[in-house]
Amino acid sequence: MPAQATAYRGRFAPSPTGPLHLGSLIAALASFLDARQHGGTWLVRMEDIDPPREEPGAAQRILNSLEAHGLIADETVLYQSSRSDAYQSALDTLFADGLLFSCDCTRASTGPNGSCCGRCRERQASVSTPCALRVNVPAEYTVSFPDRLQGLQSEALGKSLSDFVVKRKDGLDAYQLAVVVDDGDQGITHIVRGCDLLDSTPRQILLQELLGYATPRYCHLPVITTRDGQKFSKQNHAPPLNDSLATENLRLALRFLQQLEPPAELQQPDPLLRYAIEHWSLQQVPAQASVAAATLGLDA
Ligand code: GLU
To answer: Does ligand 1 lie within 6 Å of residue 27's CB atom?
Structure first.
């Protein structure tokens, strides 16, 4: 029997640490255009599982901004803060399979790349609380995946990282686990996001394999950087988008993605997006890790 084609399901998954800025609009727009051009479904997931880093009101502000730019999800927005049972059951599965260990390392005592100091595994009975839960990375584990933009990616993950956190010491769910469980449960087939998350992908693929989820197709876009090479973010004061300039913002994001310039008479987000869907070409997007905002004439 021929394999059944799986319908395209994509998503944009912002963390509500601040308002939408040009960098996040680029990721939202590219994931939207790619989904639409494939006749797929596009979802928005609010990754609100890290209250200490969040800004009050940012989640709603992001959703309003997306709407002002014509980027409207096809299904109800999923809030990660409502998903703790699902994350717990994934942890239970990993625990039952003997893949987790408790770790009370402090920031100062962790090993390379934030891994455990290496001694917690042998002293499980005396690990103090609060403690983190970490998943073991098998020493021989390697990951290869074809990134749709950046080409073949390979990492000997077991050599670069012995373990990583799936439940934080402060009791919060860890991004790596939550993103895998949600992408899996939401049936996401295609992930289009910034290159700042490229080094998380091998860990996420390992968790997908351990939890029995299919691995989506990945596409990592260049991130937009300031003059001194910093990624646009709240921390380096990326200006929030002005929603009343939605069409101009979308044009700027399309220029960053090196897409065909929409005709000047398209002055509203919806017709502009229709044009951009029709002409969306991933081949035009620079296959680079970053592009400076200055190349768009922006003073950042
Ligand atoms: N919430 C993450 C962020 O805003 C993105 C997660 C993802 O796209 O996988 O950086």
So the answer is: no
Centre of ligand 1 to C-alpha 199, Å, is 12
Structural domain total, the chain: 2
23 lines ligand 1 (CB under 6 A): no
* 14 in contact with ligand 1, CB cutoff 6 A: yes
The ligand 1 atom nearest the CA atom of 12: 8
* Residues of the chain predicted below pLDDT 70: 1-5, 300
Its pTM stands at 0.96
Rounded-to-integer distance, Cα 178 and Cα 83, Å: 8
Specify if 4 maps to a domain: no
How many alpha carbons lie under 13 Å from residue 35 in its C-beta half-sphere? 26
Q: Write the pLDDT tens digit of every residue in 136-172.
A: 999 999 999 999 999 999 999 999 999 999 999 999 9
Q: Candidates 9, 15, 190: which one to mutate for ligand 1, based on the most atoms within 8 Å of Cβ?
A: 15
What separation in Å is there between the alpha carbon of 2 and the centre of ligand 1?
A: 34
Residue 212 — left, alpha, or beta (φ > 0 → left; ψ -120 to 50 → alpha)? left
Which structural domain range is residue 276 located in? 9-81+222-296
By CB atoms closer than 10 A (0-12, 13-18, 19+), residue 85 is exposed
Residue 298 pLDDT: 81
Which CATH number is 227's domain given?
A: 3.40.50.620
The pLDDT tens digits for 47-75 are: 999 999 999 999 999 999 999 999 999 99
What are the tens digits of pLDDT across the range 238-257? Answer: 889 999 999 999 999 999 99
Half-sphere exposure (Cβ direction) of 161: Cα atoms closer than 13 Å: 19
Residue 141 lies in a domain: yes
In a domain, 35, yes or no: yes
